[in-house]
């Protein structure tokens, strides 16, 4: 088995997905301080299940998630995946490749996966247990942790040796088994208490059960006789009901015949009145028609007046139209005169446009000549301009050469100045490096001093830490004791609450009522007396004795509630109970209480606390009961007061009214009130213990924090010691670097002198080129002056020709504009002529239209006059129609009067029939009442059958046994009822309850046996595990000890070393001492060793463990940091010996380890806060270097 790869994403300084692939052998991870190398080791420990954020160098677990930089946002999760080659089956799984993943979100949610399947942390831990891997294994040695193997106390070294011996899995199983054993002991205690309670209940329940069985025998016989007598009576009632039913049928038939006759009379009366109403309605319809005729005549007169008005308007319109025709004729003469004037104006405009066109043609000819002159002048100007441009170009080239030469000279001068400054800078840097060497030497001395002071301070912190740890251990022991007491109290409290909730000790009838009230089947139930009162513990026995069976009395709101409860008990055959209505029970206190008598305590009612509304009940039950200290005091008081009232002692003895005594032993845990008080006391105890435990936890946490703070100080001191050692190493390297840099500066100064000579030569060449270019420019300036004079004369001629062409062009433009304006005027004149002609034609058309409108108006007048004549003809014929309608109205009124008279006769006959029906209805009612009485008796008997026996009539008839003598059966029924009453209160639930309790007792007894057997098996398993662990650990420890001794001699070059147990009699719990003697030294205390020696001894122990129990792969984080170069080389060479069985990932700064590695991973931080990886195969690099050397 070996590690194939490690993949990180969002973990600490690795925000991007980063994958490291590993081969067998040694892989080294290198990089500068702060680059994120150790984050790779943290990732390995984290994915294997590490739960301590402190071990991962953080305050909270969220600190492992990349927190972002100035340029990158923070990650939402952190994930690490390791992939392991399991071809050899070292891990207990069938998969040849095992992938383990852990993912944490900022919300706090986390998940573990093995080969993509979600698992628990426990599964991951068990997968790697006893393989050397895991968060607590020896496969991962963190930064600065190697020397803890030597520096820590003897007891703290056990963990790594347990893992190396392979007993971690056994220890885990043993701890789990011990937890199970503790749970089994708790269960045994709980079952014992429950059995004790059940034993107290079985005896009384057995007696109640036998009594209930006798009651059931008598009650069954009573029930059978009662059912038979009731069924016999039901038969008699059924026969009587049949007789009454026959009489009722006859009367009902007669009643229905009379009702039918009445219905027919109702229909006839209704029809007569309806016909009379129809005749009246017909007369009203005729009256409406006459009204409509009169209305129509009045509307015709109005319409005639409207038509005459329309005719008058039409005549007025004809007159207006004729007047319009005369006006149209006069406007025609005016338009003709206007037409002649505009025709003459058009002829004048056309003549002016022809003259303007002739002038524009002459101007265009002159403009053509001026353009030809301008073209010739422009050609000469262009030639001169081209020649002048060529001269300008030559001058520009000469100026460029001159400027280039000047720039070269300036650059050479600038370079000379820069080189001079650089030469000066080189001198300053040499001085600076000299000063830096002096500072480094001083820093080396300061670090040496700080190292000594830090060693002294760390020793002081070590003593304080040991003191705090001892106090923490004592506080932890006290806390465990209180927690054990709290568990016991809670256990006893749970048992008592179970008994209280199950109402253990209450009769079945009381339980039944309370359950029915809780279920809402019955209302008005307040609770039992035991539930409603509270009594101080010292008086509970006395009050419980005084109340006796009254403890189970049930308080109800009123008498109705009591009756409902009794009815429910009777229906369910659930036994008997006593009910105390608040409205009727209200007792008084004893008037002559024995106040001041020796041994007198108080009246029992005065010792009880309850709600004010229940005070009357308590006075009724306990108001005449006195409480005395003991039986002697009670006897004396009773004798003095003539035995008039009951006296109860504090220990439960009784002197009854009348002089009888009741007493004996009382079980402290058997009473209902005692149990209630014990629950209250246990609750108070549990509350106090909870508060004490919270206080103890606070103290433990405070001590733990102080111890952790001291441990952090120790850790910080050790870390600072390692830093100082690293700083001293870096100081040495820095001194070497500064010396090398000074040598390089001297070589650079020589090269700088050569550059100065080159720049001086370049400056001389540039000055010569500049002088030649200046002479050439002077010659070209003369030629350019003559050419510019000639070009000026040519441009003046060109300007005169251009001016002439502009004037002609402007004149031509004005003529063209004038011609266009005349064309527009001609078009406007033509439009006016067209409009005048259109107006003349329109006038002629309007005259024809007006004549047509006059003809239309005359036609409309003729139509209106014809309509007036038609309306007059219609009004003349309406008089005859009105006379006919008046005759029809008179006939309808006569028929209405006849129909009303006939209906009144039928109504008198109807009244007589209704009287006959009422008489018959009274007779039927009397029969129905007698029948109802029979039915009521019948229904009551049927209801009794159902309510008291749960039988329907049919079911009762099936069970019916006809009695030979009904009167003898009634006598036997009364005897049975008397015998049942003599039994007194019967708990029918006792049969079922006794069976239930017996079954529960047997089950609990069986459970107790099983748990005791399980306890014995667990104890045997613990003993077996302990022996196996001792054997395995002893053998492994001896082998590790031998290899440690050999490796120490080999690596140190002599001396001797061994490991020993602090208590050989307790090999599984004792500490482990390290005894060493390097060559030429006598060491009495490991603290006397140097840091390097401690680290090298720890490496020897680590190598001894790997020899005995090789780990598949190991991650070593700078464990050789404290070693010198010689020992680093030894360490790396020895590491190579294990590579056939173990794969190593070494995080290191040391050259010796790097040289021994097969693959190098470089960790850099190119971007602040973000780590990147580079990979280099050392074999390939060595091959390439050898090839390059050849």
Main attributes?
20 helices; alpha/beta; 6-stranded antiparallel sheet; about 1200 residues; 22 strands; 6-stranded mixed sheet
Which of globular, elongated, flat, extended, rod-shaped describes the shape? flat
Work out the radius of gyration. 65 Å
- DSSP helix fraction: over 70%
**What profile does the largest beta sheet have?**
6 strands, antiparallel
The rounded distance between the terminal residues' Cα atoms is 40 Å
Order of adjacent strands in the largest pleated sheet = 2-1-4-5-6-7
- Which structural class do the helices and strands define? alpha/beta
- Average pLDDT metric: 77
Spans of at least 5 consecutive residues whose pLDDT stays below 50 are none
Q: State which percent range the strand residues make up.
A: 5-15%
Count of DSSP E strands?
22
Question: Your description of this structure?
Answer:
The chain is α/β, with parallel strands linked by helices and 1190 residues long. The chain has 20 helices and 22 strands. The strands form 5 sheets. A 6-stranded antiparallel beta sheet has the order 2-1-4-5-6-7. It has a 6-stranded mixed beta sheet with strand order 8-19-20-3-21-22. Strands 12-13-14-15-16 form a 5-stranded mixed beta sheet, sandwiched between helices. A hairpin with a 4-residue loop joins strand 5 (97-105) and strand 6 (110-114). Helix 5 crosses helix 13. The longest helix is centred in the N-terminal third of the chain and has 334 residues, at 168-501. The protein is flat. The chain starts with a strand and ends with a helix. The model has no long low-confidence stretch (mean pLDDT 77).
């Amino acid at each position: 088995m070996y590690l194939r790869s490690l993949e990180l994403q969002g973990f600490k300084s690795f925000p991007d997905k980063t994958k490291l692939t590993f081969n067998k052998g040694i892989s080294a991870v290198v990089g500068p301080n702060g680059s994120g190398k150790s984050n790779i080791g943290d990732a390995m420990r984290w994915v294997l299940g590490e739960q301590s954020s402190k071990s991962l160098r953080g305050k909270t677990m969220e600190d492992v998630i990349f927190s972002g930089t100035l340029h990158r946002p923070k990650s939402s999760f952190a994930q690490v995946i390791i992939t392991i080659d399991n071809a050899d089956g070292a891990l207990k799984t069938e998969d040849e490749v095992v992938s383990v993943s852990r993912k944490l979100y900022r919300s706090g949610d986390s998940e573990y996966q093995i080969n993509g399947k979600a698992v628990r942390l426990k599964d991951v831990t068990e997968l790697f247990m006893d393989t050397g891997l895991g968060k607590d294994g020896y496969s991962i040695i963190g930064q600065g942790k190697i020397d803890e193997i030597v520096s820590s106390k003897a007891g703290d070294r056990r963990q790594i040796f347990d893992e190396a011996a392979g007993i971690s899995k056994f220890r885990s199983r043993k701890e789990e088994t011990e937890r199970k054993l503790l749970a089994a002991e708790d269960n045994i205690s709980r079952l014992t208490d429950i059995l004790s309670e059940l034993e107290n209940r079985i005896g009384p329940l057995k007696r109640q059960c036998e009594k209930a069985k006798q009651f059931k025998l008598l009650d069954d016989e009573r029930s059978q006789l009662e059912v038979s007598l009731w069924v016999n009576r039901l038969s008699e009632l059924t026969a009587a009901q049949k007789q009454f039913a026959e009489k009722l049928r006859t009367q009902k038939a007669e009643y229905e015949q009379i009702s039918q006759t009445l219905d027919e009379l109702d229909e006839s009366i209704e029809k007569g009145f309806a016909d009379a109403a129809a005749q009246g309605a017909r007369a009203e319809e005729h009256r409406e028609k006459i009204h409509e005729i009169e209305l129509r005549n009045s509307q015709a007169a109005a319409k005639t007046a409207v038509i005459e008005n329309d005719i008058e308007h039409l005549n007025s319109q004809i007159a207006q139209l004729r007047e319009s025709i005369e006006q149209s004729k006069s406007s025609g003469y005016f338009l003709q005169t206007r037409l002649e004037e505009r025709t003459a104006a058009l002829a004048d405009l056309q003549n002016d446009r022809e003259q303007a066109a002739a002038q524009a043609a002459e101007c265009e000819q002159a403009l053509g000549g001026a353009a030809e002159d301008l073209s010739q002048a422009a050609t000469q100007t262009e030639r001169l301009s081209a020649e002048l441009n060529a001269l300008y170009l030559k001058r520009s080239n000469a100026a460029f050469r001159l400027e280039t030469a000047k720039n070269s000279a300036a650059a050479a001068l600038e370079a000379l100045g820069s080189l001079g400054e650089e030469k000066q800078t080189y001198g300053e840097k040499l001085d600076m490096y000299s000063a830096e060497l002096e500072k480094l030497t001083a820093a080396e001395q300061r670090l040496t001093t700080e190292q000594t002071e830090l060693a002294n301070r760390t020793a002081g912190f070590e003593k304080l830490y040991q003191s705090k740890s001892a106090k923490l251990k004592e506080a932890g022991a006290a806390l465990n004791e209180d927690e054990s007491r709290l568990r016991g109290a809670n256990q006893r409290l749970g048992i008592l609450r179970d008994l209280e909730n199950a109402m253990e000790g209450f009769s079945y009838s009381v339980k039944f009522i309370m359950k029915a009230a809780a279920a809402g089947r019955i209302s008005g139930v307040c609770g039992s007396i035991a539930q409603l009162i509270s009594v101080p513990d010292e008086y509970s026995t006395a009050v419980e004795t005084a109340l006796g069976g009254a403890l189970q009395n049930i308080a109800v709101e009123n008498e109705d509630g009591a009756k409902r409860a009794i009815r429910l008990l009777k229906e369910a055959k659930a036994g008997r109970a006593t009910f105390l209505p608040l409205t009727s029970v209200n007792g008084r206190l004893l008037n002559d209480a024995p106040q001041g008598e020796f041994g007198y305590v108080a009246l029992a009612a005065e010792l009880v606390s309850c709600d004010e509304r229940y005070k009357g009940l308590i006075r009724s039950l306990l108001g005449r009961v006195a409480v005395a200290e003991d039986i002697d005091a009670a006897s004396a008081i009773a004798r003095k007061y003539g035995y008039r009232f009951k006296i109860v002692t504090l220990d439960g003895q009784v002197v009854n009214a009348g002089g009888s005594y009741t007493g004996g032993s009382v079980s402290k845990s058997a009473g209902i009130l005692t149990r209630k008080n014990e629950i209250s006391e246990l609750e108070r105890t549990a509350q106090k213990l909870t508060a004490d435990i919270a206080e103890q936890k606070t103290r433990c946490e405070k001590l733990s924090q102080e111890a952790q703070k001291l441990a952090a100080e120790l850790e910080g001191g050790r870390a600072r010691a390692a830093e100082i050692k690293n700083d001293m190493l870096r100081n040495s390297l820095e001194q070497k670097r500064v010396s090398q840099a000074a040598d390089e500066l001297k070589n650079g100064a020589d090269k700088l002198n050569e550059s100065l000579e080159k720049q001086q030569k370049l400056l001389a060449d540039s000055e010569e080129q500049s002088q030649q270019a200046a002479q050439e420019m002077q010659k070209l300036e003369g030629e350019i002056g003559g050419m510019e004079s000639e070009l000026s004369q040519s441009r003046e001629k060109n300007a005169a020709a251009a001016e002439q062409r502009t004037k002609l062009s402007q004149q031509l433009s004005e003529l063209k504009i004038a011609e266009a304006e005349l064309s527009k005027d001609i078009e406007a004149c033509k439009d006016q002529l067209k409009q005048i002609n259109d107006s003349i034609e329109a006038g002629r058309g309007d005259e024809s239209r007006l004549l047509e409108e006059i003809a239309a108006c005359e036609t409309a007048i003729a139509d209106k006059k014809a309509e007036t004549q038609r309306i007059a003809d219609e009004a003349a014929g309406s008089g005859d129609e009105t006379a006919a309608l008046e005759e029809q109205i008179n006939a309808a009124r006569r028929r209405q009067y006849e129909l009303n008279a006939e209906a009144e006769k039928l109504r008198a006959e109807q009244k007589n029939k209704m009287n006959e029906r009422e008489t018959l209805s009274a007779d039927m009612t009397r029969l129905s009442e007698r029948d109802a009485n029979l039915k009521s008796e019948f229904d009551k008997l049927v209801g009794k059958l159902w309510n008291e026996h749960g039988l329907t009539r049919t079911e009762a008839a099936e069970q019916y046994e006809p009695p030979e003598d009904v009167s003898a059966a009634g006598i036997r029924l009364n005897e049975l009822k008397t015998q049942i009453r003599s039994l007194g209160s019967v708990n029918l639930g006792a049969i079922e309850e006794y069976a239930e309790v017996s079954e529960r007792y047997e089950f609990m007894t069986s459970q107790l046996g099983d748990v005791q057997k399980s306890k014995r098996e667990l104890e045997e398993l613990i003993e077996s595990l302990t022996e196996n662990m001792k054997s395995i650990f002893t053998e492994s420890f001896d082998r590790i000890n031998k290899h440690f001794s050999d490796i120490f001699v080999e690596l140190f070059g002599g001396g001797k070393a061994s490991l020993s147990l602090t208590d050989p009699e307790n090999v599984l719990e004792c500490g482990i001492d390290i005894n060493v003697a390097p060559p030429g030294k006598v060491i009495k205390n490991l603290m006397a060793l140097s840091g390097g020696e401690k680290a090298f001894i720890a490496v020897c122990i680590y190598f001894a463990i790997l020899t005995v129990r090789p780990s598949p792969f190991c991650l070593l984080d700078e464990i050789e940091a404290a070693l010198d170069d010689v020992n680093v080389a030894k360490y790396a060479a020895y590491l190579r010996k294990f590579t056939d069985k173990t794969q190593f990932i070494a995080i290191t700064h040391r050259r010796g380890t790097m040289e021994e590695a097969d693959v190098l991973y470089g960790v850099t931080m190119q971007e602040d806060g973000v780590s990147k990886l580079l990979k280099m195969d050392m074999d390939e690099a060595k091959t390439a270097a050898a090839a390059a050397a050849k």
